[in-house]
Amino acid sequence: MGIFSFIKDAGEKIFGKEKEQEEENIEISEAKKEVIRKENAKAADKLLNTIKSLDLKVENPVINIENSSAIVYGLADSQAVREKIVLVIGNSGGIAKVDDRLAVKKEEPESGFHTVERGENLSKIAKEHYGDANKYTVIFEANKPMLKDPDKIFPGQVLRIPRLDKK
Questions:
Q1: What is the overall mean pLDDT for the chain?
Q2: Mean pLDDT, to the nearest integer, of 74-102?
Q3: Residue 98 CA from chain centroid, whole number
Q4: 93 and 117 share a domain?
Q5: Which of 88, 110, 136, 144 is a good FRET partner for 77, with 20 to 30 A between their CA atoms?
Q6: Quick one: 58 and 121 in the same domain?
Q7: Where is the LysM domain (predicted)?
Q8: Within a domain: 27
Q9: What's the rounded Cα separation, in Å, for the pair 25 and 143?
Q10: What residues make up the domain containing 71?
Q11: Is residue 24 within a helix (H) or strand (E), and if so which, with residue range?
């Protein structure tokens, strides 16, 4: 799918104080770099645990984090799972880019994406993308299990906007 950009400060925090301080300092010592490498590994493990807890089926998942970028590898069961994994990673605080190197077992059309803006809700987003505000449930279902309530989205969050089947 490629490289995706996200709003770095939106989402659940996965990094500790050392990481935040590191970005403020241009020159850092080797010891500090090692601490940051460990924090990145810890954050990657936390993301892998989140993916597992959400029951997103992926074989041999690996996440590498450097600075505010994450690279994700593995074999996803479907295109939908692939996209959800990218969103779980990218919608985490401290991640600004996700380099998606996931493969999928069966190729399917990619979904569109939408970055939530202040004042938006799923109905407004559905109206914009589908021409029908009542199709908000399509967007909600496409973003489960990351979304647990259709009324709880936040500015900066990126959502999957699946293609509608033409019947």
A1: 88
A2: 95
A3: 8
A4: no
A5: 136
A6: no
A7: 112-161
A8: yes
A9: 36
A10: 2-106
A11: helix 17-24
